[in-house]
Design goal:
Chain lengths: 166, 366
């Protein structure tokens, strides 16, 4: 301990404190403050730049996501449009078909009724003609009867046999 | 791995050869008394040289020859406070051979200390062969003070130029600043912030940075061939530790004193036991700081000088080169010790500041 005390020099202690404090104050003003501030500023700058890059990246991601979503929607819309068109086409065709059928049926029906009417008219005509013929026959029969009764009857029968109305 | 083994074997071989050669050498020399006595002289001279080196001096000598009394170097100013300031150059002492006369007072340099004497320079000795003459208050610019000034100028120039390079290059360091800036950031991020905390670390940063670089550069300048020994002086390390102590006490918060005198979270009887221990610890901490740095650097200087001295004692090619190799290895180790001790001093200072500025009450169950 005594040796340690002997090693201790008050003058040196005094100078060390004085010079060190001077160095500390000078460095604080001319070195540490500018250096630490510069480092802080730079770190702040780097941090900001990184944040900005991150934000930009996120925005990019959002944009691409948006694009994809829009594309998907467009595709879906196109699909639904196509589907609708197809359905419309089919329904139009089937409608047209059924209408044509109806129309055709109508025409056929009309034709049938007119044919029936013609037929009836023809039958009526034939009936009239038969009547006239019968009357003519009858006249002839009557004339023949007036001549030969048997012959007349026979004639009528024959005549009637010939003219069979279907 | 192979290489390391090779180096190991080679070193071992060299050691064995060196000792065997020395052993053979010993009896041969003992027959020649003259050589033996010269060896003894060497030992004494080396011892004196080491003692001279590790101590502070009033001269800045690069080398000296004790036989012819030749010194190469320059003298430094001596400043004494003895009935007013007495300022003169140390050349007046002529390395202890003359009595310096300044303003009617006489001073003599004896074993690197200045004593006030009469005109003839007579020193009175006690039974332990210590002079009993008065030692005047001594504020001389000694060799160590010159070392402190050199280190201060170096550190100041380095970091001011670093600070200026920021302004010039837009916050990007250039040249040597690229090496020193990471150290500044390391001290901030690995020492100051973890020990002190984000809130208060800024006000301690200038001291921590200055102390780190001052101690490191002082340690480094001690390894240079100029023979400066700054941080191996008790007064220097004591001054640094004293500043740490003062800053710790003056920036302390009430919480710090509460932890010393009335430790929270322990039974009251323990509080009474702990208070004096903690109070003692306040003073032991700077004392430990002082001794740790001083002893490490002092011992490093002693070891290197002793190994270099061995070259003259071995006085053979193998022993000499081996001592030289060992001194080289220790010098490299000292390079590591230089930054390590600077780091430890800074780290512990930061820890003490952290204790002093701690504010929040820790979660104690009371």
């Amino acid at each position: 301990m005594e040796k340690l005390v002997n090693l201790f020099s008050y003058g040196l202690f005094f100078w060390q404190i004085l010079l060190f404090l001077a160095l500390l104050l000078l460095l604080k003003k001319f070195a540490w403050k500018p250096i630490l501030n510069a480092i802080d500023e730079r770190e702040e700058g780097i941090k900001n730049a990184l944040d900005e890059a991150e934000n930009a990246r996120k925005e990019m991601q959002n944009l691409t996501a948006d694009n994809e979503r829009i594309l998907k929607e467009a595709r879906m819309q196109r699909d639904s449009l196509l589907k609708e068109a197809r359905e419309m086409k089919e329904s139009m065709i089937s409608e047209a078909k059924s209408e044509a059928q109806q129309q055709a049926q109508k025409v056929i029906d009309q034709a049938k009724t007119s044919i029936e009417a013609e037929k009836q008219a023809a039958i009526a005509d034939i009936k009239n003609q038969v009547a006239e013929l019968s009357i003519g026959i009858a006249e002839k029969v009557i004339k023949n009867e007036l001549a030969d009764k048997d012959k007349q009857v026979k004639l009528v029968e024959e005549m009637l046999k010939e003219i069979t109305i279907r | 791995m192979y290489k390391r083994n090779l180096v190991k074997t080679l070193t071992l071989l060299l050691l064995v050869v060196a000792f065997s050669v020395n052993a053979q050498h010993e009896p041969a020399t003992s027959t020649h008394e003259k050589q033996a006595s010269s060896k003894k002289d060497y030992k004494a001279e080396i011892k004196a040289e080491i003692k001279h080196h590790v101590k502070d001096s009033y001269y800045f000598d690069f080398n000296s020859n004790s036989e012819t009394g030749e010194y190469n170097g320059f003298s430094l100013p001596v400043i004494l406070y003895d009935n007013g300031l007495q300022v003169f150059m140390s050349s007046k002492f002529a390395h202890g051979k003359k009595v310096a006369e300044v303003g009617g007072n006489y001073y003599k340099l004896y074993h690197n200390k200045i004593y006030k004497t009469d005109a003839e320079g007579v020193l009175q000795f006690d039974e332990h062969h210590h002079p009993t003459n008065i030692k005047p208050l001594d504020f001389s610019i000694t060799k160590t003070v010159v070392g402190i000034i050199i280190v201060s100028i170096l550190v100041f120039w380095l970091f001011v130029s670093l600070a200026k390079s920021y302004a010039k290059n837009g916050a990007i360091p250039k040249g040597i600043g690229r090496f020193f800036e990471p150290l500044v950031i390391y001290i901030r991020d690995e020492i100051a912030i973890p020990s002190i905390g984000h809130k208060h670390y800024k006000k301690y940063m200038p001291f921590l940075l200055t102390v780190f670089f001052f101690v490191w550069f002082s340690n480094l300048i001690g390894i240079t061939p100029f023979g400066l020994n700054v941080t191996g002086n008790l007064a220097v390390t004591a001054a640094l530790a004293f500043l740490t102590f003062i800053i710790t006490q003056f920036t302390s918060k009430p919480n710090y004193w509460k932890h010393i005198f009335w430790m929270p979270g322990v039974p009251w009887i323990m509080k009474i036991v702990l208070a004096p221990i903690e109070l003692l610890g306040v003073f032991i901490k700077p004392f430990a700081l002082t001794l740790r740095l001083f002893a490490n650097i002092f011992a490093g200087h002693m070891v290197i000088y002793s190994l270099l001295g061995l070259i003259f004692i071995f006085h053979s090619f193998i022993g000499g080169s081996l001592s030289f190799g060992l001194a080289l290895v220790i010098s490299v180790l000292e390079l590591l010790v230089a930054i390590l001790q600077a780091y430890i001093f800074t780290m512990l200072s930061a820890l003490y500041f952290g204790m002093a500025s701690e504010e929040h009450e820790m979660e104690h169950t009371e």
